[in-house]
Amino acid sequence: MEELIIKETIEPLGKETLRAALKINGTVRSYFSTFLRSIGYLEIPPVIYSTATDPLNHPVFDTTFEYYGRKYSITKSMIFHKQIAVQHLDKIFTFSPNVRLETADKASTGRHLSEFTQIDIECLRATRDDMISLAEDMISGIVAEVEEKNYHELLSLKRTLNIPRKPFLRIKYKDALGKYGKNFENVLSAKMSDPFWIIDIPINEREFYDREDPNNAGYLLDMDLIYPEGFGEAISGGEREFEINKILQRVSLKGQSPDQFKWFIEAASRGLLPSAGFGIGIERLVRYLCGFPKIEMVTPFPKVPGKYSI
Ligand code: ASP
Ligand code: MG
């Protein structure tokens, strides 16, 4: 267990910047829900704890607990619930609170909170291209909406935004790595003035649920959206593994046990239709729209990794 760092955090309460951020947060939530409903998406309530949650591809502290002799985990993402719910509901979204007890080295990235909300989207029979197109509509749409609805807040924050135009640039992971090295995400994010996609991420860089490209073994049919101006990662998503044999193979490739995801594996064994989806971190989006140096400025009670928080 790492030592807890008790340092002063930025105190957002009492700052005018917080009021502006919360107004923009309100615009984000109402715009996304109205827009998604208008194109046939159904909102499902969030899942706060369950027997199976996202294994993630990086280490975080454990959040499992026992309740009447059964083990549960606090939600790291609703990925499995999305994939199962969409089998019956076709097109879904949720504002999902996630707890990821990140390590203290993430405290100064400016974009990590150990408790945050993502708008999580999933669509039955959709492809990665469909989801890229939807995400581009949402990102362009929210920038335009905030420019209109939050003119005064943007003025007070001295923030100017460009409405990004479809299609956003797509860069293959392999090419970005070859050209800019391991830190390509930050380097590219700082260089760019519009959001861009990183696609075709290698299989070992992501969780087992992102679908391996049947025409490009070892690479995934997934995508990450990166904000420009150094704001970093915005979205991750992709097509899902849906065939049980493939799912089990990918779980074992990760050195994980199917028992860890029991209810999901059982549901997948009964047969799944293909789906695709993505998640947009709401606090990261609001931070980008506000142009803040630190994500903790957007929320009244931020949970900064490694720091004591109320
Ligand atoms: N919600 C997912 C995650 O946190 C993103 C996705 O839909 O793939 O990884
Ligand atoms: Mg993921």
- Straight-line distance between termini: 20 Å
The CATH class name reads: Alpha Beta
Uncertain ranges: 1-7
Q: Which band does the percent of strand residues land in?
A: 15-25%
Report mean pLDDT, rounded to a whole number.
Answer: 96
Query: What structural category characterises the helix and strand content?
Result: alpha+beta
CATH topology grouping: BirA Bifunctional Protein, domain 2
Q: How are the strands of the biggest sheet laid out side by side? A: 1-5-6-11-10-9-8-7
Helical content (DSSP H or I, runs of 4+): 25-40%
Number of strands: 11
Written as H for each helix and E for each strand, in order along the chain, the element string is: HEEEEHEEHHEHHEEEHHEH
Heteromolecules bound: aspartic acid, magnesium ion
Any idea how many domains? 1
Overview of this protein structure:
The protein is of the alpha+beta class and 310 residues long. It has a single domain (14-298), classed as Bira Bifunctional Protein, Domain 2 (BirA Bifunctional Protein, domain 2, 2-Layer Sandwich). Helices cover 34% and strands 20% of the residues. It is built from nine helices and eleven strands. It has helices spanning 16-38, 79-89, 128-149, 151-156, 173-180, 184-191, 244-253, 262-269, 282-290; strands at 42-43, 49-50, 64-67, 70-74, 91-99, 115-124, 169-172, 196-199, 222-227, 232-239, 275-281. The strands form two sheets. An eight-stranded mixed sheet has the order 1-5-6-11-10-9-8-7. The chain has a three-stranded antiparallel sheet with strand order 2-4-3, with no helix packed on it. β3 and β4 (70-74) form a beta hairpin. α1 packs across α3, α1 (16-38) packs across α9 (282-290) and α5 (173-180) crosses α6. It is globular, with a radius of gyration of 19 Å.
